[in-house]
Specification:
- The longest helix has about 45 residues, at about 35-75.
- With about 90 residues, the protein is mainly alpha-helical.
- About 80% of the residues lie in helices and about 0% in strands.
- The chain has one domain.
Length: about 90
């Protein structure tokens, strides 16, 4: 009949496996340090670009809304060409 495995022995095996995995991961990191740091840098640049794009888009929407509110009375009065071309005397946008 087989001898039962002690609970302590199985926990020791699990600890040894996790320690081995840790050292293998640490070794891989040491070998590929430039690659990891490069990936992190690319990730940070992408996040910064997305944030900048969102802020820029919001500012452009505000500017477009302001310009539209200035020109809407001209458009609604039926002066379509003046609304399209703008009026430099009244400082409507082109």
């Amino acid at each position: 009949m087989a001898k039962p495995i002690s609970k302590f022995k199985s926990k020791e095996v699990k600890k040894e496996g996790s320690v081995e995995l840790y050292y293998r991961a640490l070794g891989w990191f040491e070998e590929n340090k430039k690659l990891v740091y490069g990936g992190i840098a690319v990730f940070v640049v992408i996040i910064a670009a997305v944030v900048f794009y969102g802020i820029n888009k919001k500012e452009n929407n505000i500017a477009a809304g302001t310009a539209l509110t200035k020109i809407m009375p001209v458009y609604e009065s039926g002066a379509y060409l003046q609304a399209i071309d703008g009026d430099p005397a009244k400082k409507y946008p082109d």
